[in-house]
């Protein structure tokens, strides 16, 4: 492990036609139209059933192994405003505390990129949401300090991952290509030249439910 931890993306699902979220995202459809289908491979795993839904059971095997990798050695998270909640623009109030209920599945500091300041939110289970208005590098600096040498996971959405990729700040990227077509939405790699940015495919694993690809940045 890097002495200061890695900046990683784990279990980020995209469609066969390259979309990481469907169109027309809303409170009723947070992943966009058809977006829920991207994550069917993950929802069935023991890791997601336990870590995200707080349930016992779930499937084991390669999909679960890769899902579990996303929760190892984590010290903090970074996410975009849209992943935190559906509200746009200035915060109308501070009643919205995320999609995950009283005890989100993060259990560590989470740094939310936004243009609008807001006081931190402390949740059950150790999750604290911090709102960063100074850009991706400041968010990363703060996340590194909070992680205390562990890894920092970029949870999404698409725009946030693209910003960190363009800045060559992501060390290790795992995407899962799901066997669904969305037709439109948010394209993860649109306009991004991964080889020119120094990224290469280091591993690919096919399962019944997805094609898993891992990318590493060459130093």
Automatic annotation (TrEMBL):
<dbReference type="Pfam" id="PF01872">
    <property type="entry name" value="RibD_C"/>
</dbReference>
<dbReference type="InterPro" id="IPR050765">
    <property type="entry name" value="Riboflavin_Biosynth_HTPR"/>
</dbReference>
<dbReference type="GO" id="GO:0008703">
    <property type="term" value="F:5-amino-6-(5-phosphoribosylamino)uracil reductase activity"/>
</dbReference>
<dbReference type="GO" id="GO:0009231">
    <property type="term" value="P:riboflavin biosynthetic process"/>
</dbReference>
<protein>
    <recommendedName>
        <fullName>Bacterial bifunctional deaminase-reductase C-terminal domain-containing protein</fullName>
    </recommendedName>
</protein>
<feature type="domain" description="Bacterial bifunctional deaminase-reductase C-terminal">
    <location>
        <begin position="9"/>
        <end position="197"/>
    </location>
</feature>
<dbReference type="InterPro" id="IPR002734">
    <property type="entry name" value="RibDG_C"/>
</dbReference>
<dbReference type="InterPro" id="IPR024072">
    <property type="entry name" value="DHFR-like_dom_sf"/>
</dbReference>
